[in-house]
Amino acid sequence: MSMPTGLRVQLASFNANQMFDGTGVPDMREWLVPTVNESRRSGYMTTDEGRELTAMSLGPREAPDIYAVAFQEFAPLHKALSGTVSQARTQADLAIRRSVRHHQSIVRDDKMYDPLELGGGPENYAKIADINHAGLVLFVYARERAPQRAHGTQISAAHRVKEVRASFVGTGLGMVMGNKGAVGARVVLASAVPGGRDEVLTFVGAHLAAHDHNVARRNAEWRSICERMVFDLMSVQLLPVLQEPPSLAGDDGDEKHGGNGYGNGDGNGHGGGRGVHVASVPTMRGCAPEMQSNADAADDNEYSLYDTHHLFVMGDLNYRVATGVDGVSPRGQRTVPGKYPPITKSDVHEVARSFQSDRWASLVPYDQLLLERYAPTPRTLHGLHVPDMAQYGIPPTYKYKARGEMEQLSKKRLPGWPDRLLWGTSDASYAASGTLRCELYRSLMRYTSSDHKPITAIVQLPHHLHPLSDFLPVPYALHPNWRTWRLVGVVLDRLVGYAWSCLLLLGHGHLYVAVAELLLLTTVGWYYVQGRW
């Protein structure tokens, strides 16, 4: 008998280069359903090799249970800072839902849905988080259908959601403004087994400081995110209204799910130490009766992004390829001195432009993220697994000529992998490997609207939380004045955003025209005041 599998989480990140400006939304299917147009040599086939699909068989790739989609530079900066991107967010949300709705028919060679009795048909995802701060946007969706291979025996990911909290941090100008920073969602899931412990997933979309030389600044911004991204009681989000899930096989009410039910929410949701009680949000949402009966008042604890069992960080982290320094092992292992001698900028340009995967691999040991993450004392992204770009054959994700040819790299900047998807787990069952199983890691080269390429990955969670699991170790304590920093940042964002928007309005969309007009008006006013007019 095969072991039950856990939820599958798809992560996706894209520095959109301000493309959501009201002029249209790009097609996201190949990004969010990465099996589209894949060849059998890709290692991620549309159909299992040698297996013919029939009308009564399951497709080769099931839709993920959770989607987390992060954008950076989502909209023009003046709109982002002034907080006027709600319409663009709505358009992006609809585009994402349209892209993933027909997942089953897209991944099947015959373009049919799986049999209805086996859980076939279009997909429905409940949006459980929608967080925006300046140019950063994070959407999190939970599938309303249970895993097909557990059809009739488990409830869906959406029906397991008990609580969602949202937070954001600005680390841009003055280390407070929103031109850089992070947004996050903390999701509490009921256990997949009766009486099991609640499971916490935290998703973070980040955009750190640019430019090759700003490594220390990026590290400092990560520290600020750890110190100031706080999930408190005021950050609790309303949950979507769902239909009741279908009855489970052999479900006879309280006899099966009585008592603690799915996730007891009585303090056993976590282990000792920092693993304090996580309760359900008191909201009516059409969830299973056994989950409603266990709903407690939301707790008033303040959680950091590391107060979680599974942490996912995605975004434009801006760590580039380092030159003039020794490299490190792509997997953080100790190496013989001199194994990775320093390289020059011309070496990086030459290798990247070859577009040969074996040559890309030679740049990976010089990845700034690896150098900082696997330093003797880690300086950034503490405790997170850094996927090996060489292992997955990922070409540089930056910097390309926006709206140019698919593989047209810019001559002005060093290519590299600033766009990353990272994850960490505290689940005790992964103590040996130290990381979750990664099913896929892919960048999408055909997207040319930005100077970055979108990336996506699918990772698999354990079926249920190991009894000995605690939260992840916290690298930095919460800042006592995090609320003040947040308020100052938001006020500055709005002031700059509104002023910028007014200038663009005055200049008919051109900032330099507005500046010229202001100078002219100032000069005329000065002459008038002096009585020289």
TrEMBL record:
Residues 244-274 are annotated as: Disordered. SMART domains: IPPc (SM00128). The keyword Thylakoid does not apply. The chain crosses the membrane at residues 511-529. Residues 259-274 have a biased composition (Gly residues). Residues 5-467 form the Inositol polyphosphate-related phosphatase domain. Keywords: Membrane, Transmembrane, Transmembrane helix. Pfam families: Exo_endo_phos2. GO terms for molecular function: phosphatidylinositol-4,5-bisphosphate 5-phosphatase activity. The keyword Transmembrane helix applies. GO terms for biological process: phosphatidylinositol dephosphorylation. This is Inositol polyphosphate-related phosphatase domain-containing protein.
